[in-house]
Amino acid sequence: MFRTKKDVDRYAQDVLRRVKNERERNMRCYNIAVQYYKVRDLESTRRYVCMYLAFKDDSASAHKLLGQALEGLKQKEKALAQYRRSVELESNQPELILKICELICDQDVHVDADKARYWCERAEDLFPHDPVVFRLKERLLTNGSTNHNANFSKEFEDLISSELKSRPVDVNVHVRQLKLYVDTGRTEAAYAHAQQIEAKKLFAHELQWYDYLTTLYKIYYDKNLPDVADCEFFVNWTMAIERYVMLCLAENQNSPPKSITECGNAIYRFDEVLHKAYAMLGKCKSYGQQSLSVKRSADFLEHMSAQLCLHLATFIFKKAKNEQGNWNEATRSAAPLLLFALVLAQPSEEQNMGGTPLKLSVAGEPLKAISNTVPQWTDAALHRHCQAGHVLISLANDQRQQYVDKVLHSCYKNWRERLFQKLFTFEETKNGLSMSHFVNHLMFSSPPRSDSSILRYLDDVIVQIPKQVGATASIQPGSLHHLVWLGVQGMRHAPPPPAATLPQRMPLPPHHFHTHHLFAALAIGDSSCHHTAASHDTVNRLDVDSFLYAAEYFDKKPSIGLQILKTQ
Fold first, then answer.
1. Does residue 481 contact residue 252 with C-beta atoms inside 8 Å?
2. Which residues on adjacent β-strands are paired with residue 463?
3. Contact at 8 Å (CB) between 462 and 493?
4. How many CA atoms lie within 13 A of 52 on its CB side?
5. CA–CA distance, 332 with 464 (Å, rounded to integer)
6. Strand order across the 365-367 sheet
7. Residues 189 and 174: beta-carbon distance below 8 Å
8. How far is CA 549 from CA 331, 383, 475, 486, 509, in A?
9. Which terminal Cβ of the chain has fewer Cβ within 10 Å, N or C?
């Protein structure tokens, strides 16, 4: 009804100007409070609903509204009191009972254990395996024990087992199980469970999972040092922390975004882990097809090094965007990194990592970590090749030869040390140069290729767009954000369409941008397409195709994109 606080202010003044007495004035305050809450003016909401409750204290909806305003104002204990009062007045509010349990779970809210147990039981009757109920049960167990004794561990482990049966793909429960293992000194069990989950790829796009997984690997490493001689562990650790960095830098995640400092810390840790992995994997003994084994391990390490370069470049751009830094300086710093990301670990047919499994071993045990994941490397390499290549083409601005020469000229002397010290300025990394793979490895000491080779790679980026679409869909499944960007790059390099008018001879983007192989779960079309009402349940492949085509044409010729949307 109203869009801004000023609109509600005018509405409130108009309503209150016409009232005849104090009682009527206060009775009108509830509707005013509701409007203020809709525009998120929480203080005005609190003030007006309190005026209403002064005359009508038995209103369950008003107490609930006051609780919502107080919760938004971070007054959680006062909000809890209002929610409880609302449920006392109107017991048939199941969602509010769950909200009460959610507030009780907060560490800043202090509630008597018996009262907390009462609300937990009420919520469990309504929502038996809700995550909020699980968290409240955990808090009750934690507060009822001292120093995580044996009884607590047994009870909590039983609770987690019960939750896993009901919610086997809930990332929160699996993370909590890993934490319980670590808290009770069972680091090896935590590591084994984590590897089982990773093998199934249940949480490949869950930032929360990889956040704790990288912590677990560090704990495992510290506990077993210097006895850690397990090459497979270093492969797992490297892959997990690389995935964590990628998710940290992503801007379209469901999880709360990481700060610039957190992103920088994650990349710094990845750089350090890669330095350790290079040292350890170099000591691993191979057997059987020795030359292939050595090549495959070298492929893995080179691929991860290229991923590090891409993530460093992405971090530079993200930092410049979020902190409103100098964009020209950011592109100068990122360009050498993008070159290395482009030319290292090329996704060529000769380097088909989905072929013969790697047979790398320690003490006679075959290393399976790499051979179980190599099919993903080609997609990741194609995605990296795509990202780095298209950005470089855009930066070159039709002067590729001159631009490449300029970037290659900057890859000399101590450019890595200067970049490292500029990016990682927080306290714990001041002495980290000696443990940096990026700073110390010889592969970054000189330009990656000749200028003519790099120009050929840039040409390949455009040719390989059909493959890049599939790789992008694999790395970022269901992300229109990435597909639109890639489609725009393809349209920029496509030949100009023939003169034609819609819809008779409308030129379409290449067939590989069709969604038949990207969103296979969607229906092709909708028989009820003439209905005026629509919801997310009616979305089909034609809708997604239309959106992709319109977005791509808007970049090249807005009038065509607008016509596509109008036809839908």
1. yes
2. none
3. yes
4. 23
5. 26
6. 285-286, 360-362, 365-367
7. no
8. 30, 21, 21, 12, 7
9. N
For residue 188, give both structure tokens.
Answer: 């090896």
Q: What span, in angstroms and rounded, lies between the C-alpha atoms of 370 and 359?
A: 9
Highest mean pLDDT out of 18-32, 414-428, 516-530: 18-32
Amino acid at 44: S
- My answer on whether omega of the bond before 503 falls inside 30° of 0, hence cis, is yes
Q: Where are the alpha helices (DSSP H) in 127-149?
A: 131-143
301-315, 429-443, 542-556: lowest mean pLDDT where?
Answer: 542-556
β-bridge mates for residue 471, sequence order: none
Eight-state DSSP code of residue 185: T
By C-alpha distance, which of 208, 200, 159, 165 is closest to 180?
159
Q: Are 175 and 212 in contact (CB under 8 A)?
A: yes
Q: Is the pLDDT of residue 369 over 90?
A: no
* CATH code for the domain defined by 1-92: 1.25.40.10
Global confidence as pTM: 0.80
> What single-letter amino acid sits at 433?
L
Residue 556 has pLDDT above 70, yes or no: no
Backbone φ, ψ for residue 508 (5° rounding): -110, 155
Structure tokens at 217: 């690997």
Instruction: Give the distance between the most distant pair of CA atoms in the chain.
Output: 95
Q: Average pLDDT over the chain, rounded to whole?
A: 81
Output DSSP code: residue 498: P
CA distance 53 to 66: 9
Report phi then psi at 125, rounded to 5.
-65, -35
Mean pLDDT of 174-190: 93
| Domain boundaries of the chain, sorted by first residue | 1-92, 479-568
Query: H or E segment at 286?
Result: strand 285-286
- Is the separation of the CB atoms in 272 and 436 below 8 Å? yes
Give the pLDDT of residue 494: 63
364: left (phi over 0), alpha (psi -120 to 50) or beta: left
C-alpha 550: how far from chain center: 26
Alpha carbon 324 to its chain centroid, in Å, reads 22
229/64 Cα distance (integer angstroms) = 59
- Other beta carbons less than 10 A from residue 424's beta carbon: 19
Please state, in angstroms and rounded to a whole number, the distance separating the CA atoms of residues 28 and 56.
11
pLDDT band at 83 (very low <50, low <70, confident <90, very high): very high
Distance of CA 525 to the CA centre of its chain: 30
Q: Assign 3-class secondary structure to 362-403.
A: ECCEEECHHHHHHHHHHHHHHHHHHHHHHHHHHHHCCCHHHH
Q: Are 325 and 343 in contact (CB under 8 A)?
A: no
- Pick the more confident residue, 508 or 159: 159
Q: Which two tokens stand for residue 172?
A: 């929160």
- Element counts in the chain: helices (H) and strands (E): 25, 3
* Helices 231-249, 260-281: crossing angle, 10 deg rounding: 160
292 band by pLDDT with thresholds 50, 70 and 90: very low
For the chain, the C-alpha Rg in angstroms (whole number) is 29
The pLDDT score that the predictor gives to residue 535 is 54
Q: Which residue has the tokens 């790789």?
A: 471
